[in-house]
Protein: PPM-type phosphatase domain-containing protein
Amino acid sequence: MEVSNHPYKALKSWRKKGLNLDICEINKCFKYKKQKISEFCLKDLLIEGEKYGICAKKGNFRKQMEDTYDMVLELHNSSFKHAFAIFDGHSGTEASVFASKNLIKNIDTLDQKGIIEAFQLTDILFCNENPKKGGTTVALTILDHDHLLSANIGDTKIILIKNSSYEVLSYDHVASDIDEQSRIEHAGGYIINHHNSMRVCGQIAITRSIGDAKYKDFLIPIPYFKTTKISIEDIALVIASDGLFEALSPEQVSNIVREKQGYTPSEIAETLTDEAIDGGSKDNVTVIVIKLQEYYTLLCSQTNRSKQKCFNF
Structure:
């Protein structure tokens, strides 16, 4: 496959350099102070924010942690715009680290077009710099006034937990999906069963990613996009890498979140992570839990003050 058939150019391979993986101290989100947080993790961690919590743990059968995350927490022009994302890398950490540092800052406008373009730009930049490196899935959610903007590629999930139900806001782009199979075959690729798992060209189980330049004609960076209005019925939002769902179903995740409503977000995130690993998940597990009911009143008050719907990060 010639990479030059699309706007990705192959560059000379660069030597693997050591990464500084120290995690900076993370401050809590303050209501009346503009704040931007941009972090990534390649080790176990537990973070407690004011309305969110993050837990990441390396799977018992993994050589290294390849999950990363990013956040932007701001109060700008009397309007909230909070962004949370998880990146699940494969074939190395380069793609997940790169995307965690660049995707959110590449978003120009908070609409479907602006977010898709940010995914595409991040993908092009990474593939141009790292034509022989791996790739990453992405699950991104932005709180824009009283709406959730969700976008994902690959099998990293976003779940909205309500008082008596749940809704999956993401879409699994995997090689077993009939529509994705048709798209890849139409592009000249193929999918085969390899070790009891459907894989693109016999190699990769997901069908959309940032990175994977070698398979770029097939593994596109176009995300599934969904807009959801926040209501008083919404309890929490869970963003998680697929390691969580090797052991827990979305229904089980939503039940645990409801049972633990009195706990802090980080305690809920840690409970979910431990349940997955103890339940037999072999993958790395990273979970972000956002308590939406604590956002709801404030988000609605901000929405009433401003009609502006697009911001620059």
About this structure: The chain is about 25% helix and 25% strand.
